[in-house]
Amino acid sequence: MSLNEVYITNTAAFFPNDPVSNDEMEDYLGYINDAPSRSKAIVLRNNGIKNRFYALTKEGKPTHTNAQMTAEAVKALFKDDPDGIKNIELLSTGTSTPDQLMPSHGVMVHGYLPETKPVEVVSPSGVCCAGMHAFKYAYLATKAGEVQDAVATGSERFSLSLVSANFEDEAKRLKELVDDPYIGFEKEFLRWMLSDGAAAFHISNKKNETGISLKVEWMEGFSYANELEPCMYQACEKLKDGTLKSYQDYTPQELTAQSIMSIKQDVKLLSKNIVLYGGYGVSASLAKHGVKSEEIDYFLPHMSSNFFKDKIYQQLIANGTGIMYDKWFVNLSEVGNVGAASVYFMVNELFHSGKLKVGDKIFLLVPESSRFSYMYSLLTVC
Fold this sequence. Notes:
The structure is a single chain. 31% of the residues lie in helices and 20% in strands. It contains 13 helices and 15 strands. Strand 14 and strand 15 (373-381) form a beta hairpin. Helix 3 crosses helix 4 (105-111). The longest helix is centred in the C-terminal third of the chain and has 22 residues, at 267-288.
């Protein structure tokens, strides 16, 4: 059986509201126990983020759901060809922050797209890699000839989980126990990194007749959960033995008192492993497909923080897969860490930048610290 070539023929993005500067963050997220954060300045200095987006008003009221933002990104793909949205056969949506456990994120997005017809819908879960898993499902379905027109999306709505009300009960408890007026660093530092938004790829078995397309050469993924314990988690708590205790095993009172529903990260475990194991995957994926790192024209690594930039650079050199900084293309400082959508935002900005020329090779790297999994892809401009 012959397989189809697969192309990204358009990209689009949607951000809720105006960008929020570093100075404005607590105006939206609120103060824990009415006191400015002690860790905010340190985290922002390390992560290099200048702006992010919140689907919130300054009064803390939501302005968009995750599904609504994702639907807006899908519609933006077809702003110049409104009838084209009727040709979609597959909607593949990745997120780590669905608006509900059931129904799935994908069908909720489809519900906001009455312009479409009945389509196949899939909703990969996870964290940052969820967007790439959605992309890969659409890629494989198109490559196999199951569909000719697909849309893949990545989206997040983190902001509601970051507002101060979600932390105050635990902060008060900690203050009573240790006279410490702020929440534990492993829970609070993510407040100063995460951002909301959605982005989408139009995927087809035919490249554009005019203008550029991005041919998807390959996609690879690696999980190291067989070797490493959980690092980033939500709706659970990490126990001393490294296992996770589900939110379902807590009482309603405990869920609030211990901020079980907030996002947490084991910072020490993250720093020790995220770059090292990501480097293993770069070497393995490039070697498998016979690609040399010096052949890459644009390197799009998803980074949660600028803190990791030099570490990634040095690790790649140490592994014999070095990629010089002049080939890096990132927009973390302008949009923040948008999890499953971050790689989509980078590809979208580059696709519409006017910089690309036929033959350019674009290498995507998406790490997921939740239990150390990674996705990689090579695109060629055509």
